């Protein structure tokens, strides 16, 4: 990916996109007033925005300059590289990503960007997106689970076999699972009735959807399969329990860092 950091401040880099598999349905803003409020806040605070286009092949750092909910238009900085600006004006799929104060903001434009004059300097203008994701940090941030005594999730495969898969990480949105053996698991497979023992927090039962599957080479040279999963229709009581467990993991991690 070609990246232009001309608009970055020292120590700032591109904002990563929200990880695949995170269920953002409950965090979509759709009205011009809501979207305009978020964009105007980004402009007022001067938060950096990473803009990806051409399916992630190119990106550059920018900033929202102003937003007008009534006209449903907003302005943002151009890149410092003319070739990127020219390519950007022809782009048909554009993704904006920001993380003000740990809150992830992301939205997509289908095109229609124009270059305009803004206080005597060039800027880009575009219509508001159809929707905008505003995702609290805890909803997507995944914590590595203990290595010495790993958590294990039990899944029943359609062939009847019970798979016991150690966890790599966990969040309110889903889990990363280590998989071994030859059992076939494919992306978008759904496993209801999965059981996860959280120790003193009790055992929970969840439905998991496989969102990604990749090969990972571990430090000892062995290769394992990592499954990225998301929770499906997570009950509120179970979500509250997970939040307490993740908060405890964070406290333990901070304690180790202090020691």
Explain what this protein looks like in three dimensions.
The protein is elongated. It is 19% helix and 42% strand. The chain has 259 residues and is an alpha+beta fold. It has helices at residues 32-45, 82-89, 137-140, 236-258, and strands at 2-4, 28-29, 48-53, 58-68, 73-77, 94-98, 104-109, 114-118, 121-127, 132-135, 143-144, 152-156, 162-170, 174-179, 190-197, 203-217, 223-232. Mean pLDDT is 84; it is low at 1-11. The chain is built from 4 helices and 17 strands. Strands 1, 2, 3, 4, 5, 6, 7, 8, 9 and 10 form a 10-stranded mixed sheet that branches. The protein has a 6-stranded antiparallel beta barrel with strand order 12-13-14-17-16-15.
Brief characterization of the structure:
With 259 residues, this protein is an alpha+beta fold. Helix content is 19%, strand content 42%.
Q: Spans of 5+ residues with little confidence (pLDDT < 50)? A: 1-11
Mean pLDDT: 84
Question: How would the global form be characterised?
Answer: elongated
Q: What is Rg?
A: 21 Å
Helix content: 10-25%
Oligomer designation:
single chain
Q: Which structural class do the helices and strands define?
A: alpha+beta
Extended strand count: 17
Report, as a whole number of angstroms, the end-to-end distance: 39 Å
Number of alpha- plus pi-helical segments: 4
Largest beta-sheet details: 10 strands, mixed
Beta-strand portion reads: 35-45%
The SSE order reads EEHEEEHEEEEEHEEEEEEEH
């Amino acid at each position: 990916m070609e990246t232009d950091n001309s608009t970055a401040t020292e120590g700032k880099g591109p904002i990563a996109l929200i990880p695949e598999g995170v269920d953002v349905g409950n965090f979509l803003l759709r009205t011009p007033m809501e979207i305009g409020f978020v964009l105007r806040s980004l402009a007022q605070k001067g938060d950096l925005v990473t803009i990806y286009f051409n399916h992630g092949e190119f990106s550059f750092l920018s900033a929202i300059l102003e937003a007008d909910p009534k006209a449903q238009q907003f302005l943002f900085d151009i890149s410092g590289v003319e070739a990127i600006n020219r390519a950007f004006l022809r782009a048909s799929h554009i993704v904006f990503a920001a993380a003000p104060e740990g809150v992830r903001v992301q939205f997509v434009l289908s095109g229609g960007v124009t270059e305009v004059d803004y206080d005597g300097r060039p800027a880009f203008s575009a219509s508001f997106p159809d929707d905008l994701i505003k995702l609290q940090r805890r909803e997507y941030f995944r914590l590595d689970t203990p290595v010495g005594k790993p958590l294990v999730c039990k899944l029943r495969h359609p062939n009847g076999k019970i798979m016991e898969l150690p966890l790599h990480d966990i969040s309110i949105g889903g889990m990363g699972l280590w998989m071994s053996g030859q059992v076939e698991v494919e992306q978008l497979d759904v496993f209801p009735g999965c059981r996860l023992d959280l120790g003193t927090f009790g055992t929970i039962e969840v439905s998991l959807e496989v969102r990604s599957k990749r090969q990972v080479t571990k430090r000892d040279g062995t290769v394992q399969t990592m499954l990225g999963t998301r929770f499906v229709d997570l009950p509120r009581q179970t979500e509250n329990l997970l939040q307490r467990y993740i908060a405890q993991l964070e406290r333990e991690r901070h304690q180790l860092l202090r020691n």
